[in-house]
Amino acid sequence: MKVIFMGTPEFAVKIVEKISLNHEVVLVVTQPDKLAGRKNELMASAVKKWAIDKRIPIYQPTNIKKEFNTILNNKCDIIVTAAYGQIVPDIVLNHPKYKAINVHASLLPKYRGGAPIQKALLNGDEVTGISIIYMTSKMDAGDIIMQKSIKIDENDYQNNLFDKLGDLGSIMISECLEKIEKNLVETVPQNEEFVSYAPNIKKEDEKILFTKNAFQIRNQVRALNPNPGCYFELDDKKIKVFKVNSLLIESKYESGQIIDIKKDSFFIACAEQSAVEILELQLEGKKKMSVRDFLNGTGRNIILKDKKIQ
What is the pLDDT of residues 238-255, one digit of tens each? Predict the structure, then answer.
């Protein structure tokens, strides 16, 4: 089949790579280049980089609801989307012979929206999965074509859970396209009673509040590592946190109080007689580092026992 693929992050690369093995990808649609990194340079999406390497035409509309003629000018049998990042209008969805399908990283109707993987980690879920659905004008609300689940390991972080779900989605998409082409699809409507949402991560979601318990904070760190990362502020410095352990403590400390410092970590009291052990961090403007390196340098004057983080 001739396929127009719409996607943006690394997760989507695994999907389009698998599609390209058995089908012709005639156009890749992805988000415009964005400023990123410490030098604030324009960066192409992972999907754009893949398309450049494969010499496949690329289209990057700023607003696809207004800029869609390039898509309509490309004949295709089906549109496949995976973490594209914009709401696609009906005129585009209805363009191909087999319409448009979406590879979504949750067990729909749970976690409709742009951050389902992060939401599953934030909530401490034990299971997640991939749903492939027909697309409609309502976000992630179409009938389910296929759905498979995987276990979330307690040591999974955002990056490796993205990898696991990308692998699962790439396996499923081949089977799904074969069923569609052979007219063997049997869909299941989503149960609206069980709908929940996973909106994109906002700036306020990144700040660590030690008034939460340590297990909630650990889930926050897991969900936001590596992008965008979460942080706390101390001595007017923003300290990003990328790896923590959570534990229960017997004594009652104030939330945010530094209660112990070791060679490779330090401990901060949280709500409900719990604490987080900080293992990996990044001082604003510096590279990510171990706590040992941090405490041997700038950190020795910042991280002091009994000091309170607001």
Answer: 999 999 999 999 888 999
